[in-house]
Task: structure prediction
Amino acid sequence: MSAQYLVKLLIDKKENFSVAGTSRSKIKFKEKEVKSFYLEEEKFDLKITEYLKDVTHVLVSTPPKIEDVIIKNFYDILSLNKKLIWLGYLSSTSVYGNHDGEWVTENSNTNPTSDAGINRLHAEKKFLQTNLPVRIFRLSGIYSKERNVLDRLKHQEIRVVQMKNQIFSRIHVEDIAQTLWNSFQKSKVKDIFNVSDDMPCSYKEVVEYASKLLGIEKPKEVSFKDLPEGSMKNFYLDSKKVSNQKAKLMGLQLKYPTYKEGLDSIFNQFN
Result:
């Protein structure tokens, strides 16, 4: 999703880019200006290798498993490309693990508690060990008009868990795209950026605000111990406030500084 929003931003800015993207579903990008290639694990369109020989910018948004698919399949080609000046890897703030509600910066300790966070951190290190012009972007919880708490409330898919001092950060996908665009001009090789809004808070606060927008009762709270094992329970094990000051020093101006502006915009688009 972040890659698609960056493509849209590039098209809207009418920049002189030739854009190509990959898809795991063999579904082409909606934008006619974008070339589309199939990529999934070991299976990929061989035309990708020809295209990568001359690209100037590469954004890696594929979630890693044991080994990152881009390094595994395309590192040799990319390392020989003298035109390549920017490679962005979309990681996650899950690499920090739990910090008991305290602030984290790009220099904070990384101690991921989930498999996803462990794999992300492993991929980060792999990229940083290469000779590629890498930038790492640690994304907070992503929301957008396509995926948000308002929609989940409408479909009764929300669980609010009774927990003290459970704080997390989030970011609107449009602000991710803007951060990436800024970094084209203003970042250095091996820079690491947190990508987050200005208002870390509990999930409960976000749900309460969204419920008021919709004019419905907020969901009843459930106990943490009653949650099924899996990604939802793991989510509540981590608590931290993610600092975005480094990205702001790069000149980033958030379109949605807090979840309130973001949810207001989404609500108004559909009402």
